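Cross-posting from the modeling subforum.

Setting up a comparison between two proteins and wanted a second pair of eyes on the formatting. Protein 1 (sequence, then structure tokens):
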Amino acid sequence: MHIDLNLIVTRVKNILMDPNQEWDTIQREDLTVSDVYTRYLFAAAAVPALAHLIGQIVLIYSALPIAQMPLSVSKAIFRVAIFYGLWLGSVHVTAFLINQLAPAFQSRPNFANAVKLSGFAWVAVWAVGILLAVPILRQLLVLALFYAIYILHLGLPKLMATPSDKAIPFTCVVAVAMFLLFIMTGWFGGSL
């Protein structure tokens, strides 16, 4: 598997800076679920996971002498691996929900498009996930989640053919799920 960092950085920059235009580009791309994960999401989800690892190590080594370590480096790495898996799982759960709810909001079910929509919306949170390296700044990820929900809202009409009058209610339902997944990922990723 070849990771094209330029492709990933360009996509992340575009989805953050001009999401409306980027959704048009994404809509035209013939990406499978596997393509979205392998070309973009596996690498993008590594950003908050690695930042979380750095934050855990900084927190551990700055607070206590080595003899009193409550969390070993191996346990911190395990915790981050779980955190990474939960982020990727959040994409899949969100996409599943979007796809299953699409008919209720007069939208067109398409799981590949739902994965694109979910994955690139979550990327907004992951991009800000670099702040996890500084534990005191981790609360700012909540603001990124609000922006991710806005990005998702812009993509619903383009990728799921959601009528304009159904886009806000559809976004609200998905937003609740995203908040719950965000909270569960943070809690479980930080409480092992």
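Protein 2 (same layout):
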Amino acid sequence: MTRKQARRRKQKKAARFKLPTLRIAHVIAPVVAITAVVVTYFASASMLDRPIRAIEINGPFQRVTALQIEEAISGELEDGFVSADLSRIQSQIVELPWIDQAMVARRWPSRLRITVTEQVPAAIWGERGLLNVRGELFVTDARHIPAELPRLSGPESRAADVAQRYLEVRERLIPVGLDVRRVHLDARGAWDMTLQNGVEVRLGRRDVDERTDLFLDIVADIINGRGNDIDYVDMRYSNGFTIGWNNGARSPVGDPAEAVDDMLALRGAPE
């Protein structure tokens, strides 16, 4: 009797761990469906992947020609209409000098449309480099230097910082009738700039933002109109600044809080 009961318990335990059965059809059917989709996709792509027959290139060409663009991507055009790597084609176009942006798109049945935007030079960097409107150095040795552009200079790694300071200063000078002609940052970190009227502004290395604000808020408005008489403005003082006149005279201005009164008195400074 005991043996029969033990046998029954073993049979119940074995029944509990019985593995589920799967029908082969339930496994094969999804595999077949997925395979059919993949085969159909590659077959369709193969039929559509015809050779590229034409290229349409659009853009306001001044520094770059459509022929230069076509030559730069000629190796990529050997791929078919579908298999052509548009991202790689776009990258190769943007690597060309004077190209700022590029868009590449497929046009059925076998044509690529390319639209490019050229760089807009905003300033001269160093001797022959050019910066764009974002302060990026996009040409290091330009053959033609637009004479009307401002000149910026400094360590190449600080090009964006120099460009940013130029843009900020210029935005605040224009309303008072002045403009910036040159901004320079030397290797020691000292700043100086030259205005359109020839006045040099020395900012130095320390408290540059505060000195720049003092110049823009007080000095710039008052020296406007006397550019022919002034050689430089030295802002490298903790309690004021100095005006250097073209005749060699110097006029120190003390407490910046009293700078307006002091500068008004300088209107009658020696010629």
